[in-house]
Write a structure and sequence with these properties.
Strand content: under 5%
Order of helices and strands: HH
Structural class: mainly alpha
Distance between the termini: 64 Å
Helix content: over 70%
Number of helices: 2
Radius of gyration: 26 Å
Largest sheet: none
C-alpha cells in the first residue's frame, strides 16, 4: 500500500545541464504574439470591469429602491 519510491540522486552540475537542455527546447512567443496577447488581456479585463460596474449599479439601485433610501 504505502510503497516508498526510491529517487535517483542527480549532481547539481548534471541538474543544471538538464535545465539548460530543457530551456533550449522552449518555443518562446514572438513580439507580435506577446503584444496581441497583452492587448487581449487588457480588453477582456476592461470588458469585465464595465460588466461588474453595471451589475453593481443595478444591485445598488435595487437595494435602494427596496429600502427606500
Amino acid at each position: 500500500m504505502n510503497e516508498v519510491v526510491a529517487t535517483k540522486r542527480v549532481s547539481p552540475v548534471k541538474f543544471f545541464q538538464q535545465v539548460k537542455q530543457e530551456a533550449s527546447r522552449v518555443t518562446w512567443p514572438s513580439r507580435k504574439e506577446t503584444l496581441t496577447s497583452a492587448l487581449l488581456v487588457f480588453v477582456m479585463a476592461s470588458i469585465a470591469a464595465v460588466f461588474f460596474l453595471f451589475i453593481d449599479w443595478v444591485i445598488s439601485s435595487a437595494v435602494q429602491a427596496i429600502l427606500g433610501l
